[in-house]
Amino acid sequence: MNSFQMRLNPENEWDRMIIQFLESIPRYYRSQEVKRILVDHIRGSAHGRVANPSYNPGACRGEDRDLGARLDSLFG
Question: Which of 44, 54, 66, 69 is the most buried (most CB within 10 A)?
Fold first, then answer.
């Protein structure tokens, strides 16, 4: 996979949280910062340090509907 895109709906509370976070990062550093956060989270998970103990790796397959908890584990 060479790229990843997602749509954010400003009408959705969780999407607004993401938009606000992204807007706090200088434009040309956003992609790098998102990558850093994801890698930090993955490394933490690999070492048993998951910020949210209810994190479910199956969430990306739609098995977990608690987006707020997943965002907390990424950005919290």
Answer: 69
